[in-house]
Fold this protein.
Amino acid sequence: MIEFNVNPGDRGYRVRVEGGAVAHGFADALAVLPPGPVAILSDSNVAPLYGEAARRSVEASGRKSFAVTVPAGEGSKSLEVFSRVLGEMLSGGADRTSSLLALGGGVVGDLGGFAASTFMRGIPFFMAPTSLLSQVDSSVGGKVAVNHTRSKNLIGLFAQPAGVLVDPAVLSTLPAEEYASGLAEGVKAAAILDAELFARMEAEREPIRARDPATLEAVISRCLRLKADVVEKDERETKGLREVLNFGHTVGHALETALGYGTIRHGEAVSAGMVAACRLAERTRGFQAGETARLETLLSFFGLPVRLPAGTDPGRVLAAMRGDKKKRGGALRFVLLERLGRAGPAEAVAEAQVLEVLRGIGA
Ligand SMILES: NC(=O)c1ccc[n+]([C@@H]2O[C@H](COP(=O)([O-])OP(=O)(O)OC[C@H]3O[C@@H](n4cnc5c(N)ncnc54)[C@H](O)[C@@H]3O)[C@@H](O)[C@H]2O)c1
Ligand SMILES: [Zn+2]
């Protein structure tokens, strides 16, 4: 078991990473919650697998619980489902002494954090992330939201959880593509912030790919600690410090837009995006080609793409980046590596260079 505190602003919380915690029980970690009934929010895939175990932990902590289950998938991050969740919380007997346990991936975490933060002007929520993406990334950071029909994550707020419990053992049931997609964000954290973690991921790539809980305990807690270090210094994303977390995301988001949302997984798009960013860094800041090769080797080993999907038009990807740039009212912005473990923003990158790089990794 690995535990550490996250202290953004004035409200801190504890993160526990423990293989097997869901099955064995984590009642003691729930002591931070108020005494009232706990709404266990989960989705239609995760609830049948781990809902009962979570219920046992909540009840063992001396609290009543009731289940609120939403359909699996991004579609549940909607105002309609949000409203339904609030209604079910009322019917379940939730009041101002209640709290919410978000048991699921990033969708449940974002929806649950938002629902808890708005229910009766806000009740505490506890994160029990079950997808790798939510375990290495979204459960820490304090951002919660639902989507507007016109824009992802448009309706949301900054809100810190009361606590986080990560159990790598539950990843055994995660579909392979979801697992790989989550690994992309883990590799990202290492690439931008921690060369030692990157080397460790290379050395332990076999047990990582095999989802060995003991190996993952160490790797996941390091990824979360790295993210926590960044968000502690820039809780509300006002200082630009969080920007490094967008490594691989300029091209990644553009790929998602150009190919159409849902065609490519976020982590897969980020994977190809990180390779593109490294190629760009080779051209603009002397990043070593050998380091790009290490990144590509690791991503490929984890089953992640290091090229644009076959038939992708680089021009369309660039056009999507321009659209994004317009939204931000500035130049094309990239996060580039100086070396593995060290990243910084690069402004005013020439479009011609970006296009060349995209052509270079085109299929
Ligand atoms: N708040 C943040 O800082 C932040 C950061 C990154 C991403 N996000 C958000 O996270 C969401 C994506 O998260 P995600 O990739 O976890 O998606 P998700 O929550 O949809 O989970 C992916 C799939 O895996 C299933 N699943 C989850 N855990 C499982 C398990 N242990 N066993 C079997 N199946 C399991 C889910 O039911 C779902 O079908 C997006 O909405 C994104 O905007 C938020
Ligand atoms: Zn991401």
Summary: The first strand starts at residue 2 and ends at 6.
